[in-house]
Amino acid sequence: MKARVHVMLKNGVLDPQGEAVRHALGSLGFDGVEGVRQGKVIELDLADGTSEDTVKEMCEKLLANTVIESYSVEMV
Q: Which family does it belong to (predicted)?
């Protein structure tokens, strides 16, 4: 069983990496990009029977900084 955790900065939190990507895309001639938010995807290989609640607990304790980041869990 696998879980995918998507972690993104919360709205209103500055995203310097996203801004650097937006600027670089503009420099490469991609003029239509008005904003970029960069995040991360963490894929976990889990033992059978591991619950989504357990994965959420992992996020709260380690995988996401919940002060500035939001996350979503996808069980696959």
A: Belongs to the PurS family.
